[in-house]
Each structure stands twice: as C-alpha cells, then as structure tokens.
Amino acid sequence: MENIVSVNNIDNNIINSILFISSKSEYISLSENNLKHYIEDKYHNVIIIKDDDEIKGFLIYFLLSPEIDIIFIAVYPNNKGYGRKLLSYLFDDAKANNVNNIKLDLHENNITAKNFYIKNGFKKIAVRKKYYNNQFDAIIMEKLI
Ligand SMILES: CC(C)(COP(=O)(O)OP(=O)(O)OC[C@H]1O[C@@H](n2cnc3c(N)ncnc32)[C@H](O)[C@@H]1OP(=O)(O)O)[C@@H](O)C(=O)NCCC(=O)NCCS
C-alpha cells in the first residue's frame, strides 16, 4: 500500500531514509542540516512516499504562492511510478494554494530527470550557463498549472 505524507517534525528514521535515497544520486547533495532546515522552515515542504511502510522517495519544494520551486526529488528504486506520484501530490498542493507556476533547475547531464519532467508536463524555458561547478549548465524548466 502506497501513501504520501508531509514531514513536519524531525524524525531520525525519516531523515536517515531520505539521506540514504539522496546518496544514490550523483545529482543530489543534501546534508542532514539542510534537510532539517527544509523540514522546519515554513516555506519549504518535505514529502515522502511510502510503500508497505518503507520510504521509497521524497520531494522537497519551496512554496510561496503564486510560485513553487522544486528543490530535490529522488526515489529508490526507480521506474515504479514513485516519482510521478510525488509530482501528482505537488500539483494538487499547487492548485490548493493558487500556484500557477512550478519551476526547477537541473544539471544538463541529468537526462533521466529531464525526460521525467518533460513526460510530466515541464518545458525548458532557459539555461544558466556554467551554473554547476563553474562547468555545467543548469536547465531551467517550468510547468504552468
Ligand atoms: C527523476 C526520478 C525522481 C524519477 O522518478 P521515478 O519514480 O523513477 O519515475 P516514474 O517511475 O514515475 O517514471 C519513470 C518511468 O517509469 C515508468 N513506470 C511508472 N510506473 C511503473 C511501474 N509500476 N512499473 C514499471 N514502470 C513504471 C514510467 O512510465 C516512466 O517510464 P518512461 O520514462 O518510459 O515513461 C528518479 O529517476 C530519480 O530519483 N533520479 C535521481 C535523482 C534526481 O536526479 N532527481 C532530479 C534532480 S533534483
């Protein structure tokens, strides 16, 4: 049984699971301190997807109506629909908060995530040259709600 919940309190089991999942991706660098900040900060939301009570993925976003910025999304394992379901929760939250615009930036080499976002309705709107390590471009994507 899958379910998505919002994380509003510091819970070490949840923190360790999120850090474990993020450690599987070379494109995510999330420290424990930053994660705790995101959980506690009122403008950031941290949501997790559980399957049979095991945490399989998380999504962190910044919500300041009328805009949302996706900070990080990651799942483990991949290709089981966890990512799509996390985004679907986000789109519902966007509608509930009168958000009309969701943005994110993405490492140019992260093709899996780029395809994932395109399939879920995002479009490339701009490029930040040499944004990562002064070497790799960031692709800015947007979805209008
Ligand atoms: C990007 C990311 C979050 C996508 O999550 P995901 O859960 O793998 O994505 P989904 O499962 O929803 O969709 C991916 C594919 O699985 C397919 N799929 C969905 N449910 C499925 C299921 N039950 N069985 C088999 N395939 C399934 C989807 O159709 C899709 O296939 P397609 O690409 O051929 O259309 C994931 O690849 C990831 O964690 N990447 C590393 C972190 C990262 O780079 N994050 C982005 C930058 S912050």
Report the principal-axis shape. Answer: globular
Q: Kindly report the average pLDDT value.
A: 97
Give the C-alpha Rg. Answer: 15 Å
Biggest sheet features: 7 strands, mixed
Give me the side-by-side strand order of the main sheet: 1-2-3-4-5-7-6
CATH architecture: 3-Layer(aba) Sandwich
CATH class: Alpha Beta
User: How many beta-strand segments?
Assistant: 7
Topology order in helix (H) and strand (E) letters: EHHEEEHEHEE
Our estimate of the beta-strand percent is: 35-45%
Q: What count of domains describes the coordinates?
A: 1
The H-level CATH homologous superfamily, spelled out, is Gcn5-related N-acetyltransferase (GNAT)
Uncertain spans: none
Give a written overview of the molecule.
A hairpin with a 2-residue loop joins β2 and β3. The protein has a single domain (2-144), classed as Gcn5-related N-acetyltransferase (GNAT) (Aminopeptidase), CATH 3.40.630.30. It has helices at residues 12-23, 32-40, 82-96, 111-119; strands at 2-6, 44-51, 54-64, 67-75, 101-107, 123-132, 136-144. It has 145 residues and is α+β, with helices and mostly antiparallel strands. The protein is globular, with a radius of gyration of 15 Å. The longest helix has 15 residues, at 82-96. The protein has four helices and seven strands, in the order βααβββαβαββ. Coenzyme A (COA) binds next to β4, α3 and α4.
